């Protein structure tokens, strides 16, 4: 997919840096390509649900931002991006030393973009298991024309 | 709806206290009734997305726990509860001084429960706007018999 | 909710009559109010899945049209309406002599509307059980400006 | 993925033949492999929504059955299969002379299976455009032990 904004990678990085929640949980932007974004998150014991797994809401946090930025990477300059909705299936207990959300755009449109994210738990530095899948709709707003 | 576990409220509170993510973000359990759970979250600037709104993943975090515990409140003693999947529509930018996720069980089953959560942003101590709606599926596992 | 189109009820009825699938399956528009639409469907043995229950896709067909028309009833004159996405939970086997999908708008917007539909199976003329719930996003297009 | 039921293909075909809705709309089972099922549907003018596109509910009907049978193909003998929930994004107006729903299992479990379906509209015998994507949860019931 071809980016409409030549400085899409800088724009994504700049916007990601403004998401204060990413610093709080320790998430980092690890890949930005046209239509593809990855976010990494080391496990921390203060991000857990009742059994010590990564909380589904934090799985969602990195998957949602990955989808939003995958969509944003293909939008024209001057766009603003917001999540419309998403659906997440939790495939396995979210265990791992590290988590990776990888999002890809399925379909772009002038107003709406559809993306999917796969979230993996990574153990022993290499073994990767898919723990969740997200299907998401993202809206492109032109600045000064909010929905 | 009638609880099968007479100490459901204590069980929910005990489990909620084990969700370390709730302490990190500052969320509190504010209501537990059979099939109904509310979770409150004061806005903090370190929970935000790029425009300063509460991040959709944090909206989801409190909605998911509210749905899970609404389901758990109706499960028999000795149950474990996990989210199977959820879908969230973000209805408005998540602004407010305070957020409230209110979940209600729609349908219970031996294995699967379906719940819905409405999430509100509250400003000026009283004005309440709905910012999101979740529809979720929760599974009941008997201890020692994991899926 | 207040309709922007004074002839919304006629518009909904006219559009519904153009949905040829409704005639094929025997569905009828049974209620049109601002933001609320109901569609009825008598059970027929040629609408079934492998155990004789109403097929989930047909449950979805009436729920989707009900959501779409509930949204359409609140749109300005000259609008076109399309489904963006929906999520359906099947709560019980879809049994009944008659089915009813009742949709209500949760949130309107200039571009996007969010609606919910409850689908009921009705037996013995009166006993009503909820068999499904849909959460849907609908887009409003101005004629001659397709996405 | 390895099938647990050596006669999975016959079982899927036998169950599909019992879905009376498939005959009504003219859908056919076109591929059955372990964890993968395709269903084909020629366009007919009596399957349409108000603008003549294939109705989203019929798109869902073939996607849901494709997901269900993809899941069923991996279940042990004596299983019964029901849809728990699904979410569909409509990516483009559903136009084409022919439609194809292709489902693949993402994750199997003793009780729950997660599958995805892509639905394509096919024109001029070959040109294929993706019109929808489904993410679905399917439950495996042992005969005589209904939820």
Structural overview:
4 copies of one chain form a homotetramer. In chain A, strands 1-2-4-5-6-3 form a 6-stranded antiparallel sheet. Chain A has helices at residues 8-18, 20-25, 56-72; strands at 28-33, 36-42, 79-90, 98-107, 112-123, 127-142. With 147 residues, chain A is an alpha+beta fold. The model of chain A has no long low-confidence stretch (mean pLDDT 95). Chain A is built from 3 helices and 6 strands. Chains A and B meet through helix 1, helix 2, helix 3 and strand 3 of A and helix 1, helix 2, helix 3 and strand 3 of B.
Low-confidence stretches of chain A: none
> Reading side by side through the largest sheet of chain A, how are the strands ordered?
1-2-4-5-6-3
Shape of chain A: elongated
Beta strand % of chain A: 35-45%
Structural class of chain A: alpha+beta
Task: Give the termini separation of chain A.
Answer: 27 Å
* Oligomeric status: homotetramer
**What do the pLDDT scores of chain A average to?**
95
Q: Indicate the radius of gyration of chain A in whole angstroms.
A: 15 Å
What is the β-strand count of chain A? 6
Number of separate helices of chain A: 3
Helix coverage percent of chain A: 10-25%
Largest interface: A-B, 37 and 37 residues
What can be said about the biggest beta sheet of chain A?
Answer: 6 strands, antiparallel
The SSE order of chain A reads HHEEHEEEE
């Amino acid at each position: 997919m071809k980016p409409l904004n030549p400085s899409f990678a800088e724009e994504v990085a700049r916007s990601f840096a403004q998401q204060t929640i990413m610093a709080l949980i320790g998430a980092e932007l690890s890949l930005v390509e046209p239509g593809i974004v990855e976010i990494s998150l080391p496990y921390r014991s203060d991000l857990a649900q009742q059994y010590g797994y990564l909380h589904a809401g934090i799985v969602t946090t990195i998957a949602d931002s990955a989808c939003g930025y995958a969509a944003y990477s293909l939008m024209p300059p001057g766009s603003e991006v917001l999540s419309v909705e998403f659906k997440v299936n939790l495939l396995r207990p979210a265990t791992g030393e590290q988590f990776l959300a990888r999002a890809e755009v399925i379909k772009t449109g002038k107003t709406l973009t559809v993306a999917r994210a796969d979230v993996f738990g990574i153990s022993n530095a290499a073994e990767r298991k898919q723990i969740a899948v997200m299907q998401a709709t993202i809206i492109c707003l032109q600045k000064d024309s909010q929905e």
